[in-house]
Amino acid sequence: MAYVKWAFIIIFWGTIAVILQYSLPQHDVVRIVNTYEERQDLNDWTRIFWSEPEDQSTSLSNRDVQFIQAVRTNGKPIVYRNEDTGWGWPPYFKFDTANLYTEANDAKSTKENPDWVVVTHYGWRNEFMSIFPNAIFIRHVEGPDVRIIPWFNIIFLTLFAAFVWAIWVRWRRFRQKKIDPVLENMEDGLYAAGDAIDEKRKGLRRWLDSWKSK
Q1: Residue 62: beta bridge partners?
Q2: 8 A C-beta contact, residue 100 and residue 138
């Protein structure tokens, strides 16, 4: 049972960690090099990684998606999609895809004359499954060495940890006060029943031995 318990705990918190890592905002210092629009096939097993801002999106097999191409400070490329999140998950309430697309076009620059920006996004980039992070905000910075402190993530994770701790403390108190005494009484009852059965078995054995000796 201990292995099952720890397996359940690891799977549960592992799932929570994956959801948070995907959903919380991330920040990249990049140089935007291009923007384009491309029709994407919405496969059933990768559809969850694409936004569904309209009801009709659930019945479409493909649709046009805007993309933002950029280069990181280390020279590696990164491609973002630009989709509204609407009222769905994650709750960024993004409705300004057209404005962001315009800002991205206005921020394009060359290697010789770079214009560095911070792209705030959520999600993952996976070339094999054609998964792209979704850009949320774009803001200009002075240079590639700007220091970014993820204040929202720090505050959110601190509050989340405090909430989990408060729930765990209350559950522990409730278990010690309400559940543990019941379990102890049940355990005592089982031990008492076992002792009674063992005593009856011994009495029956003594009676059989005395009957055989006659």
Answers
A1: 41
A2: yes
